[in-house]
Amino acid sequence: MTTTAATPLAFAPPTAPGEGLGRMVTTLVGSEILRIAGEVRALQAAGQPVLNLTVGDFAPRQFRIDPELEQAIVRALAAGETNYPPSDGLMPLREGVRDLYARSFGLEYPLAGILIASGARPVIWGAYQAILDPGDTVVYPVPSWNNNHYCHLTGARQVAVATRPDNGFLPTAEELAPHLPGATLLALNSPLNPAGSGFGREQLAAIARLVVAENRRRGAADKPLYLLYDQIYWLLADDSAPHATPVELVPEVAPYTIFVDGISKAFAATGLRVGWVVAPPHLAARMRDLLGHVGAWAPRPEQVATAGILADAGQTARLAGAVRAGVVARLAELERGLARLVAAGHPVRYLPPAGALYLSVHFDLIARFGNNRGIRKFLLEEAGFAVVPFHAFGTADDNGWFRLSVGAVGVEEIAPALERVAAALARLG
Ligand SMILES: Cc1ncc(COP(=O)(O)O)c(C=O)c1O
User: Fold this and answer.
1) What is the domain partition of the chain in residue ranges?
2) Residue minimizing CA distance to atom 7 of ligand 1
3) Whose CA is nearest to atom 14 of ligand 1?
4) How far apart are CA 170 and CA 177, in angstroms?
5) pLDDT for 146-175, tens place per residue?
């Protein structure tokens, strides 16, 4: 091969945002959380101590993937598992997911309903694409994660349903019912990002019954109402709030239910990119074809390694249990610190954590700062306490609620940070 001198290429910046690009990407909104993360990095680089409770991820120095999972990936690479995987995933992994759902939820899905993909995101995107035509209605509760963006990507009509703190920000059947006639998709998530709460069995069963009733009302020519149930955090649910699924509670909802799941959170393995959908086979088949066109398969060595873990109920429980223990220790420390703020009379309240990565906290400071943005800036700049406001999850930006995410912090960093918050609040007078 001959080498030639490289020509430096110059690109003129567009004169208007999105100039020359498609309408959908021109109006696409970037991630608010990533923008806040940039501010946090700048403060840290300037030497200010910051407790970074913003990212819904794990810092590997806090949560390293299990050595058995790591070594299994290395072994698969060394064994030459480096070509394209089958477009619906390696059979041992699909069997592992089938067995996991059978032993955990008592649900026996056919293998044809199980599709492996590169994490939960492509699964959600694929489900939206497979079900919706532009203008179809998606109903989702707020606060919730990214449904607004997935609606934008598919051109769907969005109906965001407000929820209440006393229900852990999870919707009730009564709140959802008026919006379901004519809708094509109801998108739910439990345990919930951002609140960390999980559906109670009765609350979820009532919603599942609504979905069944709405479908029974529809004619043969009508599109069904589907229920997307994103349970990516279920293996991290606390024993105090056991996880429930709509299909085990109301089996008649199975033909409409799409489970979104994967190892990203359960095994603190967000970078490995292994997720799956469990759904009616005809839908999984079209999602396989769709995701195949974008090549959103999980990497083959990671599939081999994950299959080995899921095949062993004890290993699966051990890996998820270790992550859960680390998360629970951090959430408990946060809760102790927040309880001290409450006891000292500061304008703070919070929802008891239920085991996902998150805890939600309310700062009653809107009268002082005007909106959540103002409170967030105050906490970051005056106390080095970096949090994400609920308006990043679709709520109004003056409700005073924030998400605290514990995957990137050490237990020992938490108490000093809350002392800084107490001092900053005291300075407000
Ligand atoms: C509710 C929810 N679903 C899905 C995802 C994405 O998971 P993955 O990293 O597997 O794409 C996240 C990530 O934060 C999430 O919070």
Assistant:
1) 23-64+321-428, 67-318
2) 120
3) 56
4) 14
5) 999 999 999 999 999 999 999 999 999 999
Own/partner pairs for 281-285, CB < 8 Å, 24+ apart?
281/110, 281/112, 281/113, 283/113, 283/127, 283/130, 283/131, 283/258, 284/88, 284/112, 284/113, 284/114, 284/115, 285/112
Alpha-carbon distance of 339 to 341, in angstroms, equals 5
Residues 109/95, Cβ–Cβ less than 8 Å: no
For ligand 1, atom 13, which residue shows the shortest CA distance?
A: 56
Q: Determine the pLDDT at residue 218.
A: 96
Is 23-64+321-428 in CATH node 3.90.1150.10? yes
Pairing of strands 275-278, 114-117: antiparallel
The answer to whether residues 407 and 268 touch, using CB atoms and an 8 Å cutoff, is: yes
Measured in Å, residue 91 CA sits from the centre of ligand 1 at 24
Hey, what amino acid is at 51? L
> For residue range 114-135, what is the model confidence (pLDDT) as tens digits?
999 999 999 999 999 999 999 9
Most ligand 1 atoms within 8 A of CB, residue of 54, 128, 145 to mutate: 145
Please state the atom number of ligand 1 nearest to the C-alpha of residue 123. Answer: 11
Distances in Å between the alpha carbon of 47 and those of 41, 50, 201, 377? 10, 9, 47, 17
Q: Which CATH fold topology does 67-318 show?
A: Aspartate Aminotransferase; domain 2 (3.40.640)
**Residues 96-114 pLDDT 10s:** 999 999 999 999 999 999 9
